[in-house]
Write a structure and sequence with these properties.
CATH topology: BirA Bifunctional Protein, domain 2
Largest sheet: 7 strands, mixed
Number of domains: 1
Radius of gyration: 21 Å
Structural class: alpha+beta
CATH architecture: 2-Layer Sandwich
Strand order of the largest sheet: 3-7-8-12-11-10-9
Distance between the termini: 23 Å
Amino acid sequence: MSAAVTLRPQDFRAELLARGLLIPTGVDGLYGRSETFEGLVAAVDALIGRLAAGDGAEIMRFPPVMTRQGFEASGYFRNFPQLSATIHCFCGDDREHRRVLSCTAEEGGWTAAQAPTDIVMTPASCYPVYPVVAARGRLPEDGWLVDSSSYCFRREPSVDPARMQMFRQREQVCFGSPEGIRAFQARWMQRAMDMFASLGLPAATDLANDPFFGRPGELMATGQRSQRLKFEILVPVSDPGRPSACGSFNYHVQHFAQAYGIQDAAGEVAHTGCAGFGLERIALALLRHHGFVPADWSAALRRVLWP
């Protein structure tokens, strides 16, 4: 394990910036990426793709925004308002434009006339998948599997480079029966543990819950844990004492199927689950544990990433 593991989160970020792996923008949690960093993310993405290749999943790729209607149906804002973000635009005429340009900072400045549009920032790469699948009608007899990916946004400004506001997720989204979803969840957890072992990363699984908002959220989090609906794979990244979730394996029961009207082949409300990976976090974990120069990594590790 590299001596870089002893760095504090802020020191780790400073080193990433100093080496040009991440590019500062002046906003915590928002970074540009260098050619080296992008190459590493692409290699991690391709590795996950090789693990999924035999499953026959439908490939879907989305931009970092989704429809406001689809977002509202998910219930995300109800549960995670602190992470949500909408897209606002100017919708006025020339007169309104001139008025806004003259607004002081106290009056809201140029943003004073911004209004919400019909799109919002995507919070997880699986979210745009559900309305698409729902619109097709009933699922096939054996259910359905989608391989999705997109940039995602969550409003969490932080000096921790592993907690970015804009990041990429690669997810496998499963539609079917309770037994099928549980088997899918277990299969991907084992695949992920094997993958992290092949990358030389110290990973561990743990029961988890989502960061639900407010007092009602505490009850929801407790229920999620008691039903063993969410597991994470944790790897030390920015803080060796507080590992970060690099993989998440979730059984949604019928939440999304009810929200979007997704039916199984018999016309009953389907069950869904997902297995997701944070691509930047895995890339950062590799840099943290193996050093900041991928060209200097062991031949065995490089063969895993660049076969």
